[in-house]
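Box 3.1 A note on notation
Throughout this textbook, protein chains are presented in two layers. The first layer is the amino acid sequence; the second is a token string describing backbone geometry. Keep the layers aligned when reading.
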Amino acid sequence: MRNLDVIIIGGGISGASALHWLAKGGADVVLFERGEAVGGVMGSHRNELGALVESGPNSAQFNTPLLSELIDDLDLGDRLVHPAAEAANRYILRDGRLMPVPTGPKAFFRSRLFSGAAKRRLLREPFIRAAVGEAEESIAQFVERRLGREMLDYAINPFISGVYAGRPERLSVRHAMPMLHDLEREAGSLLRGGLKRMRAGRKARARGEAPERKGLFSFIEGMGELPGRIQERWGECIHTGVDVERIDRIGGSWHVVARGERFVAPNLVIATDAATAAGLIAEHETAAAAALRSIEYPALAVASVLYDRSMVTHPLDGFGMLVPEVERRCILGTIFSSTLFPNRAPEGTVLLTAFMGGAREPALALRSSEEIAYDVHAELRRTLGICARPKSFDLRVWNRAIPQYNLGHGAIIEAIELAEERLPGMHLLGNYRGGVSVGDCVKSGRALADRLLRRSGARVAVATDAQAPDDLYEES
């Protein structure tokens, strides 16, 4: 039997981040991960032709100073890469054609992406009354009420597919896009609230309070470098390829049996996906287990496709393209990976990362690899003017991809919090609460580590933090 301060089950970026700060703070901690490496969906490798393939997020955003701190702790600062200038452009498919997303007020009113009626409707937004009461709205209901149907169809719907691979008709605006909900509550208007925050940001920059790092980033060999370095740094605390056999609460401590050995600690962190967490706590908290099982995780296919550059007529001068649901296409969108960051593809080629399935049509992601490859190539050929077969095609299918913060998510969070109160020392950690972005997961892991270290009497510096909106396709 081994006595510890903290036991962590699950090595996604949430659990790995918590491990880092706990171990750094002096806690005696161990992490069990059923896979062969930590990182969860976050992984990177070079294929046989040298293209850099991402299995999960292609980038992250500095939406919390904790990401900078983690990167510096792990000596990864010299491995950072930032987007090319062209990545400032984004495209949305409308009426079968790719149209650039306007980047400012003047560009918006000149843009052909939105009709004149949609632009006039947007100007009415500051004069629309804020919602009264606590009735929960979906993102679709909220956006259509404040901005109109066209903005929902051609702005918010594709954006939601980029962040959650989700559907705005199901997602709770309060939990999935809290910034929109808060802007209306604080200022009575999205436009007024947005301008107020922009002015506050300019004043902060004038005072020299702007963060040292901002915007999107990745690493030279992809996002997998981040969890990989955590595993390298704290390998003695990490046990991979391990399925936890059972957990028990005995005499005020948590007992975890893995590989026939018993580990005992006052604190147990369950940092798995929601369904796995439900199975682990079902004996102890049936209501919370049922709530966790109710969280939707749609299937998502991630296809990395390499083409000869001369065979692609589109300039690929942007981050990528998003496909609104009303366009009735098979894919949710595509990242122009070799444009976004350097050295993603061999000389003379381009790498594209396409997404299929999600809450929009999960069954599309669960077909044979041949069917997925055929449809992905057909969509890319049709949209980007590709006149040759791909040089390589790498596919990763996640049967349970991104958790959906659907209507009723608040009740799920309440059930989780109640379970944590009833089971002292048990903590549920994961991207089904607190946000799905890399920065959100790191922030949740750090917050939990800080609480546990304080209880153990360790001294840690608690970072303050300002939330910023995620970027498109940061968490696909």
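Residues 438-455 form the longest helix (18 residues). The two ends are 41 Å apart (CA to CA).
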